[in-house]
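Troubleshooting log. The previous structure file for this entry was overwritten by mistake, so regenerating from the original sequence record. Sequence copied from the archived sheet and checked twice against the printout by T.R.
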Amino acid sequence: MAEKHKTTHRNLQSDADGSLKEVDLSQGKPETDFWADVPEVVQQAIEKAKKQLDQGEGIPHDEVMKK
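Regenerated output below.
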């Protein structure tokens, strides 16, 4: 029981996403890849943006921050 209390206390001290992952792992649940949970339309938008950046079509961070 003391170990369960320590795990719960540690989880409360860490960030929410990390806590949930730690709880899942402590219960023997396999670690999952977040990409599988990302909606298809969002995955497509991310892939499109990555291609645009690879082609030099992005706007440098400094320029965006000036606006």
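The radius of gyration is 19 Å. Archived copy saved in two places this time.
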